[in-house]
Each structure stands twice: as C-alpha cells, then as structure tokens.
Amino acid sequence: MPFAREIRRLLAASLAAFALIGIAAAYWAVSGASTLLLREDNPRVVEAQRRIERGRIFDRNGILLADSVAADGAFTRNYAHPASYSAVGYFSLRYGSSGTEAAFDAALSGEREIATISDYLRAHTLRPPQVGADIRLSLDAAVQEALVAAMGALPGAGLVMDATSGALLALASQPTFNPNTLDEDWARLAADAGEPFFHRALQGNYQLGGAAYLLLLAQAIDSGFDLSQQFAGASAAVDLGGGTTVACIQEAPSDQLTLPQAFIAGCPAPFLLYWQQNLAGTQAHIKAEFDFEQPLSLAGFPAPEALAAPASDAVDAGQLALRNALGQGALRTTPLQLMTVLSAIAADGSAAAPNILAAQRPPAAESWLAHAPPTGRARMFSPAVAEALRHQLSASWSALSGRAAPEAAIGATLYRSQAGDALQTWLLGFIRWHDGSRAIAFLLLQEARVGAAALITQSQPVFDALLALPG
C-alpha cells in the first residue's frame, strides 16, 4: 500500500500524543495537584485560610494580646494590646506573618500532620473546621507597657528578661506598626525611612561602645587588678581618628579616676590606659567569651542582620586597635545578645537562653501545657566577678538616679555607641532580690543622644513595674 508508511507514522504519533496526555493527566490528578492547590494566588487556598480560626495569644497573666473575630463565615485577626504590637507581629493573608504570629504559626493555625490514610481522608474529605491552639507568652503586659512608654517616640529597642529562666518579660522595637490596619498601611510602612518592620531588638547590630568598659572592668576584676589605682587625665576625650572622638558621658568628678569611678561617669580614657597597659594587642576576651560574633536569636523570629565590611575612613592600625578596645571598632552586637551578657551578671555569671513561649492550649482544651524552655546555661563570668559587677552597677545606679537601692538590689549603667553619624544611647540595668531567688535584666536602647537624668526618669516606671511583679 502506497500510504502504509505514512499511516504507521500517524498512528505512532497519535499513540505518543495519547500517552503524553495520559501521563500529564495522571500527574495533575495525583502529585501535581498540590502544586496548583498551594499556589499563593489560588483563590481556594485564600478562602480556606480565611476560614481558619487561629488560636489566641495571651501574656503570662492571661491578658489577651490577639484573637480571631468571626464575620460571614471567615475570620480576621484582631490585636488588642498596642504596646505589644512589635512583639506579637502580624498575620495577613496578603503579606504573610511576622513576630510571634510567624514563630508559632503551626500551633496558631492548627496545622495538622498528615501521617495516615485516615488523616488524609479527614482533612480532604470530611473537611472539619481548622482551629488553632492558644499560646501564652512569657511577656508581661504591664512591663511591656512601661517599657514602650519609656522608649517614647524615639527609634530604639527594649528588652526585659528573667535572668533566672531566660523568659522575656518585654520585647519592643520602635517605630512599629498597627497590625489591625496593616493591609491599608502596607505601602506607606514599607516606604517609611524609620523601617517599622525592622525589629531593632532582634535584628539590629550596633557598636559595642561603652559596653566595652563593662567588659574591661570585668577583666580587671577577674585578673585581680588593683581597682584603687587612679589614672591621670581621666576626664580627657579620646581621639580615635577619622573624626571620631569619645568623651565622658557624665561630668567627671576629678581628672584622676579609678576604673570604677570612670565606669560610673562613662569616661573612656582610664579604660584605654588600662587596656594599653594590660591587654594591648588582643580582643579575644571580648569576642570569645561573649559570642558577639555569633549572636543568639529567638527561634522563628528574624535573625540578626548580616554585617557589611566596615568602611575604611583613613584610620591606621593603631587607631583601629584603639577603636576596638573602646567598642568603636568592627565588633558589633545585638540588643538581645547584650541582654544575655547582662543577665549573666544578674544571675551569678551564667546566662539562660532567651525564650518567649510559656504554654500552649490545644483547641477545646481547658488546661494549659507548659512549654519547657531550653536547658543549659552559658557561663560568662565567675560568680565572684558577677557579684563584683553587680556592686559596681548598683553604685552607678545610685549615682545616676540619686537614690539608694530598695529592698531588691538595683544596678544600672548608661553609655553611648556610634557608627559614623549614627548615635545610640543605652541603659543597662538589673534587679536582683537579696535572697537570690530572682534576677531580672533590663535593656533600653534609643537611637539618639539622651541625657542621663532624662533616661533614668523615663525608665523608672519600668523598674517600678518589675519590682511589683509577683514572685
């Protein structure tokens, strides 16, 4: 037959086409279906998410921070505590989630594990309502409110940690956003030069600045250095080259100061002289012992920002060494990491890992299931050095506030750090009950120059709220 070859070719092509169609149909019916169903622009997925009743978020005392409100068979998220916005974060069908909403999304959304055929049939055939678990955070709403009020309108960060357990009692970043109006405000917020979505307490990396004085003082105490030794020229400013100069934060009582006196006044010159005489050529005691190069992060929350290589501003090796010694060099830290160092001072030298989840309650359950915090503590100071540092911090607090320590010992120090034109004012403090039963660390960072008296006055309500905490 003259057309037999052409017919066979046509038949083979037809069979191949049918085979491809069969394979494609099988793929899209079995394994490929999920790739279509899970596309973010699939309206069925969006509609299904709208019908999820996310769990509620409470503070440690049961104060409601966030819940889901039903309307027309769907749920919208409602945030009830403005001071906690930056810690709780947001949940949006359009923009995703952040903060606590993102860190504990699996629990809050009631995400179900598909492990058996019955799990699959229940999820995809019976389609029961999806309800998330409630979670209780370690945050204390009263402390959170006091901390946010102390920060005011200035950009910055604040943290309060139970140094005994590592539980965060407050976590704040300014400026922030209103998650209740996120969809309407998104374009404006995303373009805001203040970066309200950037969580300064967790992501920001800042110069150590005067925190280096605290660490140098710790090294001096640990080495048995004579703390009564006075340094001449103690009130002089220190020129670090490249137009950077650091000076005393407070008016120096004399031109000859000991390290403890220089610590209270925030004077760099005595610490520089101490470093030159005892530690020149090394910064290992700062890098290795306190993990500033590998800062901690909260699981599920934003990680610290990546650090770019420091810009060269025509300083020589000697000036760079001086900058490193006084906390104005390449080494930086996050507020969360510095908080753990402070908590170690408050808690006899060892720091617990920071944590924020206190308990979960499954849907329809009445009882809370306590969440076990991370185990283990990082040793940063010996108990003797930690006790000596608490004594120095208490003396500093009394000098800054003009008050004697109350029933619980209080300590605080004020210092500054700067990188180029950026300037930060830090207040680090602690409260420790005399019987050692509890210790709390407190950090307040403001991205501006703030006077010592003003910052102490602003932060006093935070100390008052901490002293009022139940045992």
Structure, explained:
There is one protein chain. The protein has 471 residues and is an alpha+beta fold. It has a domain at 141-357 and 373-467: 3-Layer(aba) Sandwich (Beta-lactamase). The chain is built from 18 helices and 21 strands. The protein has helices at residues 4-29, 33-37, 43-50, 85-88, 99-103, 105-109, 117-126, 141-151, 182-191, 200-203, 211-223, 259-265, 268-278, 284-290, 317-325, 335-346, 383-401, 452-467, and strands spanning 57-58, 64-71, 74-79, 91-92, 96-97, 134-137, 156-162, 168-174, 206-207, 231-232, 238-239, 245-246, 256-257, 332-333, 350-352, 357-361, 369-370, 377-379, 409-419, 422-432, 439-446. The strands form seven sheets. A six-stranded mixed beta sheet has the order 3-2-1-6-16-17, with no helix packed on it. Strands 8-7-21-20-19 form a five-stranded antiparallel beta sheet, with helices on both faces. The chain has a two-stranded antiparallel sheet with strand order 4-5. Helix 8 runs antiparallel to helix 18 (452-467) and helix 12 (259-265) crosses helix 17.
